[in-house]
Amino acid sequence: MVPLESITMSALQPLPVMTSPPKERVAYLDNARYWVMLLVVIGHSLTQFTDMDSARGVYVWIYTFHMPFFILISGYTARRYMGDARQVRRIVSTLVVPYLIVETTLQLIMQHYTGEPDPLRILSPQWLGWFMAALFVWRLTTPIWRALKYPITTSIAISLLVGLIEVPNVLALPKILGFLPFYVVGMHMNRELFDKLADLRIRIASAVVLGTAFLVCYFYSAGWTTDWLLWKQRYDEDPLGATALEGITQRAELLVLGFVLTFAALSLVPRRKSWTTRMGGRTFYCYLLHGYVILFLQYQFEVFEKASDHGVVAVIVTMALAVVLANLLMTQIVSKVFRPIFEPRLTWLFRSDPPPEKPAEEKTPEKAAADAK
Fold first, then answer.
1. How far apart are CA 326 and CA 333, in angstroms?
2. What is the pLDDT of residue 347?
3. In this structure, is residue 11 part of a structural domain?
4. Which of 181, 170, 87, 158 lies closest to 129 in space, CA to CA?
5. Structural domain tally of the chain?
6. Which of 75, 106, 127, 370 fits a 20 to 30 Å CA distance from 177?
7. Which H or E run includes 130?
């Protein structure tokens, strides 16, 4: 089999060997984050309506590519990770600390209302925390994917084969390994390839692809097993119940669909700075906070259960309110309030950077002779 790298590397960027601090946020990437975060909040809000055909189709369409989209962008922005002191501090303050806060509090909320999980499973993320755990693991393993000769082929093989064995949910390992190809491909992307997606012909084709996929999901997803979209069960485990060949084939189809729809969506993302650019720079807080709102509405007021009686109207209203919630959680006031909590400086935890060493003074022949006297 010809390694995928031999086909794709000509369009992908050679990975840099040096780290450098980001100079400026890229409007295109922040715009992309904004739009995909809307899909994340809408998708999570529709989870309670998946038994309704009108909501199920939208849910399946979103879940087919929204996390591949987010993960590919994450891989691209993490491609320079080398594990220096600055980057390690950043990982701890923006991934480890938020993970512990969010996973602990969300599990306590669930335990209060449902009695589960009991005991708490802090290292076994139950919902939102899995993505932060995944980013942590992927970021730490970035140097490995930089060093391998065939990283993309290797990541795809891991994704396809992991469903054959029992993998504990420690730090969401089944999902980390399942979604791995999207992160690795993102690492090897370059700006030129993103720019090529802006070609008018590609954008027209992308709109057709996304629209067609939506119609297929909307009209034909009634009998589909949506658990495939969670990327965490073994192939032979309920409710998947697939043979090894069926499981690998289904996972391969999801990989293809994820990449196709992700690149289609990326081609439609605006390139210019706008209000979505500013909002997209604050998606971190929206991701961490929207789950609290959804759980509160679900368990304290049983909003989704009551709304389901209204059919498609409830689905439309839920989607509209999800968009409003997402935009509210991406405002500047929210970032100011929650930044000290979710992005602490932790100066007490890390050693200060040593002062840079002064370069050795080059001795001239005259100075060397004077020193010898």
1. 13
2. 87
3. no
4. 170
5. 1
6. 106
7. helix 129-147
